[in-house]
Amino acid sequence: MSLLQVLLQAGADSTRGLAVFGAALGAGLAAIGAGLGLGRIGGSALEGVARQPEAANKIQTMMIIIAALVEAVALFAAVICLLISFKLV
């Protein structure tokens, strides 16, 4: 479903169209938030390794665990938004 179709539906049936638009917006915000979070995780890990190269293995392990948790939350948010949009259409 394209954005134009969602906006046209919003005009025709305000409750359903706006809910689908909100779900699409929520999925997009979840993806942007995950991208920003992963960028900060990677940048901070690189700074940590640059300051203490001997701790690179510990930093990398923690970075991967936290990145996986961020991705899981973003995926969960996107799935919830998609379920909302499919339930209403």
UniProtKB/TrEMBL annotation:
Q: Which UniProt keywords apply?
A: ATP synthesis, Cell membrane, CF(0), Hydrogen ion transport, Ion transport, Lipid-binding, Membrane, Transmembrane, Transmembrane helix, Transport
Q: Which residues cross the membrane?
A: 20-41, 62-86
Q: How does it sit in the membrane?
A: Multi-pass membrane protein
Q: Does the keyword Transmembrane helix apply?
A: yes
Q: What is its main location?
A: membrane
Q: Which Pfam families match?
A: ATP-synt_C
Cell compartment(s), UniProt:
Cell membrane; Membrane
Using the record's annotation, list all stretches that form the V-ATPase proteolipid subunit C-like domain.
21-84
Site positions for Reversibly protonated during proton transport: 71
To which protein family does this belong?
A: Belongs to the ATPase C chain family.
The family database entries (NCBIfam families) matched by this protein are listed as: ATP_synt_c, PRK06876.1
Please state what the protein is called: ATP synthase subunit c
Q: What is the lineage of its organism?
A: Bacteria, Pseudomonadati, Bacteroidota, Cytophagia, Cytophagales
